[in-house]
Specification:
alpha/beta; Nucleotidyltransferase, domain 5; globular; CobE/GbiG_C_sf; hydrolase activity; Cobalt-precorrin 5A hydrolase
Amino acid sequence: MIAAGFGFRGSADTDSLRAALAACGAAPDLIATAMGKEKSAGLRRLAEELGVPIHAVPLGLLEAQKTYTYSPASHAAHGTGSVAEAAALAAAGPGARLISARQISPDRMATCAMAEGDGP
């Protein structure tokens, strides 16, 4: 199972999210993000386009993930070096591995990372 994890600014639209996903180069089985961000209209549209569910990851589970990259803003807001990487790893389940580290959309509004695992 492949999980696409997303971190994004509140004003990110579907195009920003789609661009970050495209930079990862794989088709996900589900989309994951920090709990509270799953209601984003842009994210919901992207999930609908892809025909995949959205998985909201609780803050404690995000904080427990080891991330490959580090963003000071992400750490300050969510307690993790990368919301995208942490969400992907958490959603892909125990023992998951990153198959694409955090990729940033050209407009810098969204990030995406991919992880592979057996699921939550």
